[in-house]
Amino acid sequence: MALNDNATLVIGSGNYLTAPAGTDIPDDLLVPVSPWEAVGHTSLEDIFSITSEGGEATTIGSLQNKSLRTKYSARTETMAFVLQQFDVKGLKLYYGSNAPILPDGSVGVPTDPVPTTAAFLAVFVDGENVFAFYAPKAEIYRGDDVSFGDTESLAGLPLGVKPMAYGANSWTYAITPLGTVAATGATAGTPGTFSPTGSLAPYDLVDLDLVTADPATAWTTGQYVTLGDGSNAYWDGADWVTGIAA
Length: 246
Description:
Elements (H helix, E strand, L loop, with lengths): L12 E7 L17 E2 L10 E6 L2 E4 L8 E4 L2 E9 L4 H8 L20 E11 L2 E14 L14 E7 L10 E2 L9 E3 L5 E3 L9 H4 L3 E3 L10 E2 L5 E4 L4 E3 L4
Parallel strand pairs: 11-13
Antiparallel strand pairs: 1-2, 1-7, 3-6, 4-5, 6-9, 7-8, 8-9, 8-10, 11-12, 14-15, 15-16
């Protein structure tokens, strides 16, 4: 692996947002639009952490090879941060989505709490770099007990976020890599290449719409480029088309 100075991260600022489950990650992480909504003020000291459970290894062997294979149990992960905003929405994230609003306006603590189910996004900014964790579906609930330790710092509500598989996805959450450059051009070949050198291939045909074809005339038989989702596409002289030029 080559050294990539642009892939290092020092967090300068950040934000945590929720949206209805299944909401796509925003096109602009710095200016996420509705239905994404910030959860509020969060801790400057306890910024973010991820813990996991499971993943134990079991060695499976045969009579001839007692260490033939290794099988791992399912692993569940929990993201954690501390919310420092004690409004109704914040309290319901901590105590449960079914926490009732009482006649006097206070928030009741339910006897049988239900976690908040939502899409979750954590965005961290380091100068010009933007780094994010995105879960299309997650359960958000109290991660630890509340403790008011002193009179000189902001009190907080420790929250835990458990990413969950959404729909037919084989993944629970995604992480945006640093140090990559989006492709702006595609040169015909078998397969073709993207430019500038080292750029990230567009994920699918929709993303390919932002890429300029070279040549601009229809590509010849057998020419194509391979996209990030593993599919192929070619330029027919007017539009990008799925498949290989015939």
